[in-house]
Amino acid sequence: MTQFEDKVKELTAHTFGTWNRQNAWSNPMVITDAEGIYFYNDKGKRYIDFSSQLICSNLGHKNPAIIEAIKKQAEKLCYVAPAFATEAAMEAVDALNSILPKGLGKQFFSTSGTEANEAAIKLVRQSKAPAYKIFSRYHSYHGATPSSAACTGDPRRWYSERARCTIDGVRFAPDNYCYRCPFSMTYPDCNIQCARYLDYMIKEEGNVAAIIVEPVVGTNGRIVPPPEYFPLVRKICDENDVLLIADEVMSGWYRTGTPFAMENWDVLPDIMTTAKGASGAYTPFALTAVSDKVADFFDDHLFCHGHTYAYHALAASAVPAAISEYKKLFDSGLPQKVSAYLEDKLVALGEKHNCVGDVRGIGHFWAFEIVKDRKTRQPFNVKADKLAGKPLMTAKIAGKAMENGLFMFAWYDTLVLTPPLIITEAQVDEALDILDKALEIGDQEAVETNTPVSRSCHYR
Ligand SMILES: Cc1ncc(COP(=O)(O)O)c(C=O)c1O
What we know:
This protein is an alpha/beta fold. The protein has 16 helices and 15 strands.
């Protein structure tokens, strides 16, 4: 019995475990320390953090510069009401303006990606009234509250809908999911039909105010669009007077190699939301950044929105330090070198294992799509299995890796291969050795094949 056993029981008895059946929230691992790309449990066992926790600990754990900035702010001023100005908020604005895409000059600070998207939806619906409809895509996650859950394509929306905890007026557009393209039967030569269909949808629906997209889809598959996709979406939005919201909560903060993922295609959204990596996950900080076109409406209209912890000084204090650390890291050239290495290694590893159907991603943002049959692309599990709480092959593989000291999240069909941006080539090797062995579990139930692994990603 460890010193924490009784306390963990008390913790789980008195708190809700997130996204879990509560009888499964009984014995979470106790984490007592973390440094760099590693974290440690109460028994001293070390784990490689190969998902950057929830794809947010981009700068690794225990970054001294960020910790120092938070300490200084904590000693000075932790909190005042958002109606006051603080040095922390002013410094965060300065730092943000040095890195945000030019043209998104007006911002709202909150504390989670969900809140950032809620604010975006309110800004859209207030400023575009009477248009109110929002398009999203099936492979997406935008947050846990009724508006953001309504815009979510993954099975978490199904739960929210059953509980009547979603808003109306959201429609789902086709995904740019090339591995399982919904248009491949009708348009075998890709004509970016997934983007073109938006124009048809907008005209048929009427009252469309905005489309919300993850520039590179995060939780739901690390899906990188064809290079023509976002320039075409931008054009369709402009022609139809529809706002484009880029949810960069997960894809932002250099995860894809550029500060924000939309920059890979030189596309400027009207609204950008972000959180997670903004503070390197050292404080809860989120941001909704908008163009003048959206901001100007509120000059003489009420911005009917706010939170007690909006512009929280302690939360904001981590942001300038994190931005400075990102810039230093990318000036060193390490992440650029390692991301190319990571890609080559992942492709080779995927090729070796029959249970890997597709290897896709960009930067430090990768997925293995796990399949039963690489030739037919038959999956082991589908969305409904997640909803039903069925055992998942991806979870079996991730469980085996965890036993051997490699932590990675698993979605119903993919493994989340998204290490901190500070990872070295030697550490990639260490992680992939463990993953190599764990994938044998999938291979045992997968069909043996000569079909090469798919690369549905459009880079390199
Ligand atoms: C793309 C995207 N949007 C929004 C959210 C919600 O952010 P949060 O969990 O901070 O509320 C997430 C969380 O994973 C996300 O990946």
